[in-house]
Amino acid sequence: MAKILLKKLKESLISVLPVTVIVLVLALTGPLTGLVHLETVEIVSFAVSAVLLILGIGLFNLGADLAMTPMGEHVGAGLTKSKKLSVLILVCFVMGVLITVAEPDLSVLANQVKEIMPGGETAGKILLTVTVGLGVGIFLVLAVVKIAFKKDLSTLLMFFYMMLFAVCAILLENGKSGLLPLGFDAGGVTTGPITVPFIMALGVGISSTIGGRNANENSFGLIAMCSIGPIIAVMLLSISTKGDLGAYDFTQYSITEYLGGNFGELIFDKITEVITALGLVVLFFIILQFLVLKLPKQKLLQIGVGIIYTFLGLVIFLVAVTVGFMPVGFKLGLQLAEHPAVLVVFGFVLGMVVVLAEPAVHVLNKQVEGVTGGGVKKIEMLVALSVAVGISIGLAMIRMIFKFSILYILIPGYLISLGLSFFVPKIYTAIAFDSGGVASGPLTSSFILPLVIGACATVLDEYSIYGFAFGVVALVAMMPLITIQALGFKAVMSEKVRQKIIMKRILSADDEQIIYFS
Fold first, then answer.
1. Which of 45, 235, 295, 492 is deepest in the core (most CB within 10 A)?
2. Exposure of 213 by Cβ count < 10 A (0-12 exposed, 13-18 middle, 19+ buried)?
3. Is-contact 467 176, C-beta < 8 A?
4. Can you spell out the DSSP letters for 277-314?
5. pLDDT range class, residue 163, cuts 50, 70, 90
6. pTM for this model (two decimals)
7. HSE-up of 424 (CA within 13 Å, CB side)?
8. What is the pLDDT of residue 243?
9. For 322, which DSSP code?
10. Mean pLDDT within 81-90
């Protein structure tokens, strides 16, 4: 176990180091370049948080391998073998809701927008979290039904995205255009470090049992479906929110808010949050174990150890991003916004490396390479995702500077991605739409979003945050849909060119080179 943990820590070190180095170099050279100025306590806090982040991601990845992934596979395979579709649907709905409620990046987003939700403060946060959970639960059921009845993913995606933009029109008609970015962000934050390992493994377990000849293809696409439900659900909820979005509360990005006497309270809050979220998932799994699964004690022991690692990793991760990454990201945004060109370039570079630190990305890449038999390599996926996220954050900065609607980017982007789905192998479409949800994980909502909010506070004002700062998570989730499918399109065209060259050589061969058999 120690060797495996050491391997995971090395992987997380490689993931977090680029982001840390970029920010520290910028902070330390700031007084010379005049771009940024961070206090010593902020730099030290960020550096310590980076170390904790490495530890947290390493522990979480080990926990995902030992607990979340096996839980998903066993639930999927065990329930499908019972051949009771109604039971499978019910369990998937409940697990979809509970897993989403346990998602840390959803908690981060909910904390930042709870004031404008119906009920406000605690009630608003709970309402938003439950609404997103219901959206995931319903669409996870639809994804399972898709596998069971062998339905085409591209057709379903086309239908539900048409429904999504119809709801957009309703929001616009009701004068709630400022809440559109928040609705799209909700779809990105739901697919994070807890949701992805479980739901992807659930898909593998179900498709291996009832997926038929296209089991590999059917094992993907669940994340894609589960990213649509929360967007529609939050947009419907947004119709009932108060029209006046009000001034944004920036106190949550103050580093003094969490240091000193409040630090112990922060740790306690995160421990309580993770215990509550994971506890619901574990409790439901235990019920399934007694009623359906009947797993051996050895396997249960492994899952139990994995849950402990997952718990420790998530607590450390959340404390690290709250204390070090959110305040520093916000302040960097405030200061870099005075240099718009630098802000766009910094956003692009940061986006390329920040995706490396997302735990769920590595879970996806590993499963993709395994399911496709090496046809889609991890390094290809990682490079494609890095470029896509870099472009998306650069676009988010440009949108904020020039103050135009996020729909000017999202509508053409989704049209291109849905159009590509008709020209590439279906497995690439499923992988691409899964990648979109995975790329927008906890660091996006806890570092990139505060960065854009800080920039927005400088370029615009505090009343424009919801309309122009939010939406960056949605852009991060959209761009991989195009880039991954572009990889598939390139592979298809390369194969066609190769076949054409081979046929041309055969047809142009001299008769003397042909051997006749009598």
1. 235
2. exposed
3. no
4. HHHHHHHHHHHHIIIII---HHHHHHHHHHHHHHHHHH
5. very high
6. 0.81
7. 27
8. 47
9. I
10. 81
